[in-house]
Hints:
The chain has helices spanning 5-12, 16-23, 31-44, 50-57, 77-92, 107-119, 135-142, 166-179, 195-210, 227-238, 252-264, 283-286, 298-313; strands at 62-67, 96-101, 124-127, 147-150, 161-164, 185-189, 220-222, 246-249, 274-279, 292-295, 322-325, 328-330. It is α/β, with parallel strands linked by helices. It has three domains: 5-57, 434 Repressor (Amino-terminal Domain), CATH 1.10.260; 62-164 and 298-327, Response regulator (Rossmann fold, 3-Layer(aba) Sandwich); 166-297 and 329-335, Rossmann fold. The strands form two sheets. It has a six-stranded parallel beta sheet with strand order 2-1-3-4-5-11, with helices on both faces.
Amino acid sequence: MTVTIRDVAKQLNLSITTVSRALDDYDDVAHGTRTRVRSTARKMGYVPSRAARNLRRQRADIIGYVIPASGARFTDPFFSEFIAGLGDQAVSHNFDLLVSTATPDTTPEKKIYTRWVQSRLVDGVILSRMRLDDWRAKHLKKNNFPFVVHGRTQGKADYPFLEIDSRTGFALMVKHLVERGHTRIAYIGAPAKFTLQRDRYAGYCDGLSAANILFDATLISEGDLTRAGGFQAAQLLLDLQNPLTAIIGANDLTADGVLRAARERGIVVGRELAVAGYDGTELSEHTQPPLTTLKQPVYETARNLATMLIAIIQGDPLPDRQIILQPELIVRESTGG
């Protein structure tokens, strides 16, 4: 038989309102009464209705995340690690994680965020894969809806974010390749609307400049952050009359597509062609050959973002509202490591 709040109130000869407020830890109920109510409820096996409790508190205890991926399926291991971090940290704070998927800057994506804000289905959201002019951040800020960001938009950011300094990281990757004797270094980027493309491309250019290597526009190709995009872009680069000796992908998935293109042409990666990526997901350890990459702590980053968001929802102070971390260069066989 299910024990109700009415049963607890009857057992203690208290009103239902008093018992309810004691269980929610309101300080207008005496400390001794609150202790007695919680102890009795626990002994009787009372389990509070989360829906009713959240209705009273006007909170869902849910945080939301929309995977910015095209199509109904996603294969980027970055998101798998990111969601795991968000979910694990949410649960540790007695929150749930609601995940949806939508292609960036489409009507379905806009409908999801509009519905979440209007219905208060979630208490706050995490944004990632930011755009130079990101309507999501503007929409959430306009509606005073809690959110935190992985990365940041163009210009000064006035919201909480955690960013990995990919610009410095890509300059470091170019330096690594130059030290291995490479001067014809290609870059496969992402669509221009993403801030990650701005930062990683700028880091690539910084690295060339630091090594006194002239920029060559023919060595730049645009991908879409997928294996297929990396494969197609690599085909164009590998057809150049003046051969290149190294290719950096904007992410590990792009670089994995490059590995496939090289393999199909009989090119020995690590000896005849150097290939590198960015993210440092588990995928990079198991490609053939293992991939040199710039590792960002995806799982830990997601956990930190969830902690930041929950603090904002609960009205707790944030020690650091804006955090910038450095990626780590992991050298493996794909660049002759």
